Amino acid sequence: MRPLEAHIDLDALRHNYQLACRCAPQSRSVAVVKADAYGHGALACAQALESQVPAFAVACIEEAMVLRQGGITRPIVLLEGIFSADELALVDIHDFWMAVHHQWQVDVLLTASLRKPIPVWLKVDSGMHRLGFAPEEAAAIWRQLQASANVTALHLMSHFATADARDDRYFKQQMGQLQSLARELRAPLSLANSPATLAWSVAHGDWNRPGVMLYGSDPLEVANDVSRQLLPVMTLRSEIIALRELREGEPVGYSGRWRAPRRSRIAVVACGYGDGYDRHAIDGTPVLVNGQRCTIAGKVSMDMLTVDVTDVPTAELGSEVVLWGKASNGAVLPVDEVARYCDTISYTLLTGVLPRAPRRYHSGSA
Asked: What predicted TM-score, i.e. pTM, was given to this entire model?
């Protein structure tokens, strides 16, 4: 079989979740498993975490149904709420919690006939300018929901635009708006995403929403002592399937972008953009071969990529190649570092790994 696999370390996942909890011991932490757990497999990750977490969060009802149908019984928050009125029946039947960010959702909720009240998180647009009610509208909506027999466990939620950044001015502006509104309404809060969980204790509310940090990616612009404790969960691993000896000046790959600066040894690796590896990876993008750092040489193809292994005499057919994650010898190549060479972020790499790269779940070094 083709050697490319995405290995998912469930012990590392649990470690990262516990790290989120230690960051904010007075908060409860929702485990965000949207987008198929950031490409890691939502059901498998939820099953690994269910004994530890008080609730999960997903983007939409389709994602929530995958968890329910897989046997997950914990509360599940729909971060974008419902997309049509008929979805509210599924929310009611399956005991989902829901965000509301638009007036039509409020209207549907207030006029519905339900089995029991639904826990609701009212989303406020404090400066992200995507979803949510303007702060000056939120108080009136809050009181409507608070007065409804269809609503219980009402919380205020928002999302930070710059909690990951060194410049904290906009974060503080958002935080100030939210603190003022929460005081007025005496509202419990859910504010902290991964970077705010890691770096901003002022944002730790009744519920935090750690996401990408659970999967070992550091979302901070500048790492701190806490984020350095994150462990990689996904290791994208393949093997060398061919080797080539090149003379100085010979090209490699489409358009001959890379030319050998000396006599060189090139390894062909079974992984390409058809597997979800980013085609924008530039020459010099790091990989690990037998645990030793090497670099991509030439454009990524659909099924293969090429690596300069001139300085790795142990490289041979079948040698381990780690595109990101943890090598067999313990060396680690952070997905965040690879993302920078691709001019993107770790989220796109992790969620972009396609089903052609099968997921293999294990704990520790198993």
From this structure: 0.97
